[in-house]
Structure formats: C-alpha cells, structure tokens
Amino acid sequence: MKIKKPLVSIVIPTYNSEKTLAKCLESIKNQTYKNIEVIVVDKFSKDRSVEIAKRFRAKVFFKGPERASQVNFGVKKARGKYIYRVDSDFVLEPTVVEEAVKKCEEEGYDAIAIHNTSDPTISFWSKVRKFERDCYRDDELNIAARFFKKEVFETIGGFNESLVAAEDYDFHNRLLEMGFKVGRIKSQEVHIGEPKSLWEIAKKHYYYGKTIGEFIKVNPRKGIKQLSPIRPAFIRHWKKFIRHPILSLGFIIYQFVRYFSAGLGFLTSVTRSEKENAYTNLPQGIITLTFDDCYEETVNSVIPILSRYNIKATFYLPTGLVGKKFEGKKIVSENGIKKLVKNNHEIASHSYSHIPVSITLLDNIRRFMISFFGSENKLNFLRRSINFIFLKSQRGKKEKCRRIYK
To answer: Beta strands of 355-403 (E only): which ranges?
Structure first.
C-alpha cells in the first residue's frame, strides 16, 4: 500500500512582484515533490502580481503591511503539515521540497535551513552578493530556517509582525531557544531579485535600517552578532577573499554602502522616535494635534475619524470669520463649532506657530494680562488678536471656553 505523502503549503508574500513571480512559481511547479499547495498573500500590488499568481492556480489572499504579517496570514490559511516560506524573487532547485520533507520525515527534524545564493548573471553586485552569501553555507550564525512543521510555527508564535528587517533571523533564533531541531539540505534557493546598482543597495538598506532597531531590541546579543559587518563566516573563508581580489574589493565597497545607508536609516528612525516620544509623553492637558484655519470641509471629514479612535484635537479658528470665507474656503459655522465642543475638542484662535502649551500656562497668561491691564473688561479690544484660548472659572472649576469671540 502506497503511503500518502504529507502536504506542503508554500506561502509567498508579494508586493509588485510581476518581474520575478512567474519564475518563482514555475520553479515550484517543477518540483519533484508534487503534493504542494501554493498560497500567495499579496500586499495590494499595483502591477500584474495577482494575475500571474492566479495563472499558476495559486490561492490568492490580500494582507499587509509587511512580509511577517503576510506570511502569518498565509499560514493560517494553509492546510499542509509543512510550511515553506518562499519570497517572490526566489527560484527553487527542483529537489528542494523533496529533500526537506525527507529530512523531516526520516530524521525527525522540526525545521530545515535551505541555503540561498544570488544569481550572478544579474550584475556585478549580484556576483559580489553571491560571493558573500556562499560564505554562509556552513554557518551557524547567519542562518534562517524557512521550511518547518506547521505545529512548530504555531508553537513559537509565527513571525514577529513588529519587524520589517531580519524577521527571519528572529524566527530562527526563537526556534533554537525553544529547543527545536533544525537540519540542512544540499539543494538551494537562488535569489533573482538582485540589485543592479549601488543606488538600489543604498535604498534597500536605508529602508531596513529604519526598522532594524526593533530587531536588536528583541535579539540584543545574538542580533548584534548577526548584523555585524565582520562575521565568523568571512574569517573562516579568508582564502576565498585572497583568491578573488576584484570581488573582495567590490565586497568592501558593497559593505560600506550597505552599512552607511542602514546607519542613516537607523539615525532617521531614532530622531523620528524621539520627536514622537516628546509628544506622546506630554502631560495631560497639552495640545498635541492641531488643524489649521478650521475649514468646514476639514471639520466634517476629520470628526468621524477622530471620534472612531477617541482622539482629541485642537482646531485653530481665524477670529471673526465664523461661517465666512477665508482664503477661498468656508470657515466652520457656529453649528460646526458646537459639534467640535460637543466632542470635547479644543477651539483656539489662529496663530503663526502652534506650540504645545499646557492649560495651566494658558490660565497663568490670562491672569497676568488681566492684572496688567487692570480688569478683564479692558482686554475685550484685544480678544481678536490674542492667539490663545482662555479658560473661565465657574464655581471654582476650570472648563474650556465654549464661546468664540467675533
């Protein structure tokens, strides 16, 4: 009696992948192991990716925002005993799946690390990348299993969806930490989505650099070693660098561009994070979200969104122009103002620069000006030019001004 071979679910995340997807799917079709289902999870591509996937009779789903969430979603839809995560710009040698299944079934492995190399015919830089990648063939540090039992995938929680770069390293690190057995096979994957210029390399690593901090945060020790420009694999293959001086020189240039770009991306993310934290960590009662000029169309479009996410904002109103046109657009009417107040939004007169100011500071400014001019009545003629919203005291309790002076 013939034993039924286990089903393998190949999950492919795609985004504008029409240039490489057909070759990827063709290599899957040509596998010597036939009990395969192909699941393509597309990130709303604008090219022919979905059309190509359907032509190869793949199951197509839509999900974003990044590869980790796409693969996790695809695994939820998978029926196979084994999952094989394949990127859309990879071409598989014919016996990859057969060897991986055999290794797991006969030798008891939970996951398989399949060596991936670069297609050297694309450009000089793809030759350099192949030169680098082939150093990792026998490496234990820079390695990532992409073929695994579905139950193992579910046990460790799938890919970390907060990661954009090095999510495969993170997954592999957790595999080992939980004691799962990882094997290797001889067949390999070939990466055909290779860069043709240093500019492409710079753009890609700048993008990855902006998110690499999160990977280091969850993999503080091993992660730094895996991302280091000086790796044990290079030292073990030092003779290879001597035998190929031109590729070695190209590798040095490639590494410089790669790490310089990633560093710029990382610094950009740190600067942006500091700015975001400066606003996120502001004490209660500080203005953080503002809308200029309080146009009626702006108010009507943003109120539902703000309400949905329970966000409070400040709307800057050109004093004296309620319900009138300003710079060609209609300013919100009194009914619109009532709607804003009803939803607990702040109303402020228009200012040249909107600096987050605490309500306590506003109240102190008001008190100072009253004492300076002698009485609140003497401030009436200034109300149109004062760029703050004042607070009134009623029965000892502060509340937002609900009246707009015109």
So the answer is: 391-394, 397-400
C-alpha–C-alpha distance, residues 210 and 216, integer Å = 12
Q: Is the pTM of this model over 0.70?
A: no
Q: What percent of the chain has pLDDT over 90?
A: 54
Burial of 52 (0-12, 13-18, 19+ CB in 10 A): buried
- 372 phi and psi angles, rounded to 5 deg: -70, -40
Q: Look up residue 61 and give its DSSP letter.
A: E
- Are residues 107 and 74 in contact, defined by beta-carbon separation less than 8 angstroms? no
Between 358 and 269, residue with greater pLDDT:
269
**Closest Cα partner for 322 from 301, 349, 345, 352?**
349
CATH 3.90.550.10 domain span(s) along the chain: 8-276
CA distance 168 to 291: 41
CB 97 within 8 A of CB 31: yes
Protein fold of 8-276: Spore Coat Polysaccharide Biosynthesis Protein SpsA; Chain A (3.90.550)
Question: Which pLDDT does position 116 carry in this prediction?
Answer: 93
